[in-house]
Amino acid sequence: MPWALSSILVLTLGGCLGRQALAMSWEEAHTKAQATLALMTREEKQSLLHGVGWDPTAWFFDLRKDWYVGGTPAIPRLGLPSLNMGDASAGFRTYWSYMTDTVTVWPSLLALAATFDPELVRAAAEGIGQEFSGKGANGILGPSVNVHRVARNGRNFEYLSGEDPYLGSLLAKAYVEGVQSQGVLAVLKHWVFNSQETKRAEGDSIVDSKTAWELYYPPFQAAVDAGVAAVMCSYNKIDGEYACENQRQFDILKRKMGFQGFVQSDWWATHTMSLQSGLDQEMPGIGNEKVGSFFNNGHEGPSSTLTAAQEIHVDEAASRVLAVIHKLNLSATAKCTPPECGEWISRNVTSAAHDALALRAARESVVMLKNDDVLPLTSDKVRTIAVIGAPAAAKSFDPNGEGQGGGTAWAQGDYYSGGGSGHMTSTRVVSALGGLQRRAALAGIRIIVSATDSVADAIEAANQADVAIVVAATTSGEAFDRPNLRLDGLADELIEAVTHRSSCRKTVVLVQAPGAVLMPWRHSVSAILTMFLGGQETGNAWADVVFGDHAPTGRLPIMMPATEADTIPPELGDLVVYSEGLATSYRNTQFVAAYPFGHGLTYSRFEYADVTTGVCDAPSVVCVRCKVHNVGSKACRTVAQLYLELPADRITGQTAPAVLKGVQKTAEIAPGDYAEVIFSLTVRDLSYFDAASDDFVQAASAVAHIGESSADIRLHAAILLTPRVAAEAFPANRLLSASEAT
Asked: Domains in the chain, start-ordered, CATH in brackets?
């Protein structure tokens, strides 16, 4: 499309492209760690390096009752607490059935990503941290921040980044700061290039450095800069070496990124004695005692024959664990030491305040993809609603329930919480039907229910209604990728039947999913909304949006593909080559989107105007401003987005599409009013990774594209970054015309 460049900014940017300073200093923590280390026996050092709490006599091992999923023992004589770490990022895992209803089932991290709201993510993370602390835990095995590559990845619901590194960086920082503000250490995962569950323990990821630094590393770097306490390495290989023994990747994490905490293995992810490569702690401590055997040197008990080099590795690993304990003051906040933690683990840590926060997060995560003036539903326009589809009344799944034991039940999710180590069970879950029935009753609107997959019943219900709401869903879980991107059961058939074979002319589809889904019926229905596994308040969140109590504010953190061919499938072989480079999601111009990344409608319309550019205070260097006008009839919020286009690569000549570098969620804007939006760009934002120099290089110019999604661009502004001599001729705060700039 032709670009009308609204303004051009000339700037001088000096200095190096070093990483941002850590939000919290580690110097004192490491000094204290060294002092503590000097007092420790070899046995005590070893105890910090591998987990405890698992029963080696059980089939495939099992967690002992009243222990935490991940832990190390206390050292009372030194005042060191046990590390009590639990799954997972979206709430305390209901590992045993007796824990059901004792925790809040929060929205998934992908649902939180759909809010595009770091302040809300921080608030949710604080609430999650409070519940972990209330359960006696001082560590959370999360957040998961891998940028999506494979749309069918079974764990995409767990990944806070969605398909974009900038969004992931923004939200990873907020999550880490939120959790750790509660005295609970965060374990960032999964490091690194863990893009699929298919053959996750055998796959060998091959990723070029430019793709790594521009697409997959940024959320990890942001969490490191936020002071994250620990990092979990993944099951897969990278360039032929397992992630948990990959010295090159550990050097990037610890040396180049500046990570100061400890690196922990995923459960049973160690293959060799990995201390010398940079691993600090193995989990769960049985069945893979590689660190232990390194320390013991093959003998019973601690060995007295460690070499000087081995002693250095042991001390380095132990000191990193100690630094985290001191940095977060875990000794002062310790609640219990397993196995004397049963009272804490069984505590009910829910609250009305957390229920309200979980509802707010779920509500803000709802993305309205389409609305042909059917929503919101009001009693003056609608008298009868049909609610259709088995997922409408679906219950929470308990993998420990009657008849479930063993097998793959642990990996099974439901339509509120994904499966695997992050799953939570609750009888307090509000289904879509429950939420809609409650709100319809308040409005005096009659509801007809066909909560089955019966096509005949669906048509009969729709024939009696002014509006038909079809609830469609699918889920996924750890260890398995989704077989396809279809919705479960007969969802597609039900939607087709209601839209084409009933007398009801208005069909609304509510989608509950762990990631991307196909919507072959999208052109036939009146409205589509999606929620990415919204937790216990799912039904209430649907009701608030559908009936207009809340104008939708969610945005797609992924691209909804038109077909499966518009995605990257899981690799079935052992070699996983990221041959597409940066061309995933909206960055791949060959992919066709049913709905693009960043898309999301609300109950009003917005126009963008008056773009300007200027100089910012450090660490930002360029500010791009514009006005967002509400030209509709309802007060609403919107999410303004900036996509930055850099020049062609100076070596290859290749051009890249504009990528997200700014997100601003406005306050509520009244009809006829406007809000000023400011995007602050850093030197890193204005740079690209140069493989030849193995570093980021500042671009000479850039073009900012501002709009409502990656495909809905409303304004453009050019930014010209010139040598200092040009800045003297044209002061940095002066805007130049296009003719002057050329």
From this structure: 32-54+66-296+310-336 (3.20.20.300), 361-595 (3.40.50.1700), 606-720 (2.60.40.10)
